[in-house]
Amino acid sequence: MNATLHTLNISSRENSAVIDRLLRCASTGDSVLLIENGVYTLADDNALQAFHAAGLALYALQVDIDARGLQHHIISSPVTLLDDSGFVALACEHHKTVSWFA
Amino acid sequence: MQMNGVKKNILFILQHAPHGNSSTRESLDAALACAAFDQQVQLLFIDEGVWNLLPGQHAGAINSKDTGKMLGALAYYDIRDVFADSFSLQARQLPADALAIPVTILPADAVRALVKHADCVIQL
Q1: S-S: A34 plus which of A60, A94, B84, B118, CB 3.0-4.6 Å?
Q2: ipTM more than 0.85?
Q3: Residues of B at the A interface (Cβ-Cβ below 8 Å)?
């Protein structure tokens, strides 16, 4: 319950400074939830490896993936897909939420 | 003044250079307000945010407001936990001993711990 949920709403390729800062502030055992254009990060292998290396669990909002037609691109990504109630449940499971955005 | 006796540890992360937008001023405004309500406020300057710590800024020259004055007010609101990311300072060749206000320089591990232990993290 001491873990932090980090939400990311921008593509890692579009603004690498934000994801870099997230990685410098997150601790092993934290979670990352990709929302809005953040779901494009699922098509960035370097970013996915960085999350994995940092010990971060990865989640993404299904509706944001579907809205961008990414559902067939991410089959091999180690990500847990959530609906809105899953988002709420995930937030409740964490000590706090930190929003990373641009 | 306390809000039901609940005192939270609120960390503001300042990541933008001054003057490009109002994010730094808004963060400092919010931080001062939190301190006025007796909350435990912490500030972390990181990445381009460390440019706010450069002394000798004359924002009036571009009709902007000086964030330096707000930084100077932090101590009057009892905000002592002002931190700067060591890596960000080094990357910009900002000497730790010549900044606009006294700050505690944090190595990477300490930055991580600061975020981990905050009750609440705010970025504007």
Answers
A1: A60
A2: yes
A3: 13, 15, 46-47, 85, 87, 108, 111-113, 115-116, 118-121, 123
